[in-house]
Amino acid sequence: IMQVLRGSSFFAGVSKEFVDEIASTSVDRIFMPGDRVIEEGQRGDSMFVMISGTAGIFVADPDICIDPQTKSQAMVQADGLSPMATKTRVGTLCPGDISGELAMLGVSPLRGATIQAETICSMWEISQDHGSTFLERFPESRLHFRQVIVQHLERTVMARIIHLPLLQGFSRKFLTLLGLYCEREAYFPGDTIVKEGQAGLKMYIINIGTAQLFLKGVTVKTYGAGGIYGASVML
């Protein structure tokens, strides 16, 4: 198993102790061809690690950014068609790949894609409680999760920017350049994005998740997907 995991981009730089921790806290799952590992729009709080096999990754519409926190399962079905008939394939899950990290980390309570087994798949399932534990024990693993989160959400960036009400008056060329050159960052629950009183030069657009604004220790606002902070500072 270690040889398989070491061949993946996520596990290539982590310690054996980190992998052992995941293995000891995970539940072994077997999926047959055609089985759905997770379903887009359904609630979930666990992450899956592919040990062997392959699975397809499907989304309802890869060109439309929908807030996972408000999307319902009905949105992936239409006119009595099979749910998979309304989805588009956007990738493949291979040995060493992970999926469902947003749910496990508490960033999004609903699944953002459907994972369907193409071969017999052996997977590890890690719950949110166990995930929080090994993130505390292995803080260096946060970097790996950040990279995976940014990679998995890349397909949603342009749609998020194009549909922002604040930017509706700008040309498509400007929005495309903004989407190409804006920095991608991922934050865990409890992380500080900006700190009161510090100089700032950036504007932040929340793609997925929620963030709270504190003023002198008091919560004054909660930002959701599509929320913007720091526009006046950037300008």
Automatic annotation (TrEMBL):
GO-annotated molecular function: cAMP binding; cAMP-dependent protein kinase inhibitor activity; protein kinase A catalytic subunit binding
Every Cyclic nucleotide-binding domain range: 10-129, 166-235
GO cellular component, one term: cytosol
InterPro entries membership: cAMP-dep_PK_reg_su-like, cNMP-bd_CS, cNMP-bd_dom, cNMP-bd_dom_sf, RmlC-like_jellyroll
Superkingdom per UniProt: Eukaryota
Gene3D superfamilies per record: Jelly Rolls
Protein name: Cyclic nucleotide-binding domain-containing protein
Species this protein is from: Alexandrium catenella
Taxonomic lineage of the native organism: Eukaryota, Sar, Alveolata, Dinophyceae, Gonyaulacales
